[in-house]
Amino acid sequence: MITRLSHTTIYVLNQDSAYDFYINKLGFKVVDDLPMGKDTRWLTVSPPEQPNLEITLFPITVGKMFPEETAKTIIDLVKNGKFGSGVFECTDIYATYEELKAKGVEFTKAPKEEFYGIEAQFKDDSGNWFSLQPKSNFESSKK
Amino acid sequence: MPAEQYQKVYLYRRIVQAKLYIDNNYSQSMDVSNISDEAYFSKFHFIRLFKKTYGKTPHQYLIFVRIDKAKNLLKAGNPVSDVCFSVGFESISSFSGLFKRTIGLTPSAYLGQHQQRQAAIAKTPLKFVPGCFIDNNGWAENSNFGEVSK
């Protein structure tokens, strides 16, 4: 029986820049930051109120997992915003939107009332996009 | 933008401005009046709006930020007394008491727990990484990997 998700991966173009984005802009917490050889780190972060979910900020580097052509393809897909990587829940969406915008986060959609609730969308520093929704959206959908 | 929406956006920007003021000045002595002045609100109106937005009063949020920053500084290996004053507390006993009530450990126990984990990571780093990532990336075979355990 599967009980929960412990790790998930977001592919990033540069781990230093991703660290700055997820920690200093989004306010996530570092769980592990370990060097793995010369050019790679095992870098995992968690949303502030979800410490047992580790999001791996994984670099797309040529190696055993990504041969050169594969790495190039994935880099292009990430850069071009082809990966929608998840939905982040927030307390107050308007306040969160204003704060993240003030910190330089690029929004592709300002908060808007949709049939499923209010939603905004933003991109990380690599090009991965995320939906941002208030907790109330999920509470009402579970009723 | 319609006037009503403009007012709402303006209000949110002022609340966010107050939150960012706390985020950036937590190490200084401040009270709610400092913070509400920063957002151009009356004290009581400000407390009500801040709590509605963030689920905490400005004072509760300030304490939350100070404890959070203290955790980071302790993890970086700073002594408890230095951490206490650099996050804006004026006495080690009030800092330690509040830290324990919030985190469940005294600052020195938290520091010790983190140092133990760091020592374990330095000794066997791959134990802290799921095996599938190690296999798929060939990290166990990586010739540079010895650098990690030094």
Structural commentary:
The complex is a heterodimer of chains A (about 140) and B (about 150). Chain A has about 140 residues and is α/β, with parallel strands linked by helices. Chain A has a single domain (about 5-140), classed as 2,3-Dihydroxybiphenyl 1,2-Dioxygenase, domain 1. Helix content of chain A is about 30%, strand content about 40%. Chain A has helices at about 15-25, 70-80, 95-100, 135-140, and strands at about 5-10, 30-35, 40-45, 55-60, 85-90, 105-115, 115-125, 130-135. In chain A, strands 1-4-3-2 form a four-stranded mixed beta sheet. In chain A, strands 5-8-7-6 form a four-stranded mixed beta sheet. In chain A, a hairpin with a 2-residue loop joins strand 6 (about 105-115) and strand 7. The relative contact order of chain A is 0.18. The model of chain A has no long low-confidence stretch (mean pLDDT about 95). Chain B has helices at about 5-25, 30-40, 45-55, 60-75, 80-85, 90-105, 105-125, 130-135. Chain B contains eight helices and no strands. With about 150 residues, chain B is mainly alpha-helical. Residues about 145-150 of chain B have low confidence and may be disordered. Chain B is flat. Chain B has a domain at about 1-55. The chains are: A alpha/beta (about 140), B mainly alpha (about 150). The interface between A and B is medium-sized, with 20 and 28 residues.
Which descriptors would you attach to this protein?
heterodimer, A: 143 residues, 2,3-Dihydroxybiphenyl 1,2-Dioxygenase, domain 1, 4-stranded mixed β-sheet, 4 helices, 28% helix, globular, B: mainly alpha
Mind sketching the topology for me?
The complex is a heterodimer of chains A (143) and B (150).
Chain A: E1 7-12, H1 15-25, E2 29-36, E3 40-46, E4 54-59, H2 68-79, E5 84-90, H3 93-102, E6 106-114, E7 117-123, E8 129-134, H4 135-141
Parallel strand pairs in A: 1-4, 5-8
Antiparallel strand pairs in A: 2-3, 3-4, 6-7, 7-8
Chain B: H1 3-25, H2 32-38, H3 43-54, H4 58-75, H5 80-86, H6 92-103, H7 107-123, H8 131-137
